[in-house]
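Because showing beats explaining, we let one protein speak, sequence and backbone structure tokens together, and leave readers to judge.
___
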Amino acid sequence: MNSAHSIDEELGINFLDEECKIMVLLVDDQVMVGEAIRRALLADPNIDFHYCERADEALAIAEKTRPTVILQDLVMPGVDGLTLVRQYRLSPITAHIPIIVLSTKEDPAIKRDAFTAGVNDYLVKLPDTIEMIARIRYHSRAYNNMRQRNAAYRALRESQQQLQITNLELQRLTNTDGLTGIANRRYFDDYLSAEWKRARRDQKPLSLLLLDVDDFKSYNDHYGHVAGDMVLKTVASSLGTCAMRSADLYARFGGEEFAVILPDTDIDGAVIASQKICSAMEALAIPHAFTIAGDFISVSIGAATFTPQEDTGQSDLIKLADKRLYRAKALGKRRVVHEGD
């Protein structure tokens, strides 16, 4: 057969796509064999041919050219063919490249040793052109399919990882207040519900702090909404520096109001946390000339503690903390109220 077209018709195989082009590396110390195989493979223009006659260079050339099939002479000076096969299999670059051994003998024992060493196929040289091309194509196609599957798997894994990152980011955005960057009211409600159930199950105290920036409307009116937004961001950031426990949650409750959930904390612990927050706010020393509470931004806090029972709900905790916050503001602001109904 002198034309690629006629060989394709006899083999019943279409040309591989360009991206799956066949690349053959022949490792054989006999130049005449190399020339004969090169000429035979000219029948298929979709096959690229590389030749190596030195066994000690074979692995380096294979790693550089990355063939889809290696035609390996079994007997070579310096290093025998099966030793080379084992070297190919140890290299991460050539470990899975199909290897077709070329031997001068049709010997079952030699075949056994070759397959044990890791070869994929066995041909007696010089093989028939049609048969050799068919086997080269078969092994190349299998190798390219494997690479494509691996690439698709890697792409799928990367896509899944990116989707997971995106979902986590969406979840974070869903639970985060857009202005201050801390937990929003939605996440506050979910977290309080979970901690309420835990406290009722374990019969442990659960505390809640509701705090309000004193005379914030006056601040907005006189300093502007941009400055007001900056105050809310600063207050939220300061809450985060109050060194609360990992289980504690601080959130924007709404407007200029913030909330702090303190699991497994009694009223004394809630008062200590409240005083710490008040001190942190005063340390900010943000001027506020239009408040009756002093010369700087301050907060009022209502603190409440419940050990949940069957006849109480989380809304009761919120209502009590809110009543005490209202009383703190009525008493002159810039203070903590933790007693009374």
In short: The CA atoms of residues 187 and 288 lie 31 Å apart. Confidence is low (pLDDT under 50) at residues 1-19. DSSP finds eleven helices and ten strands in the chain. The first strand starts at residue 22 and ends at 27.
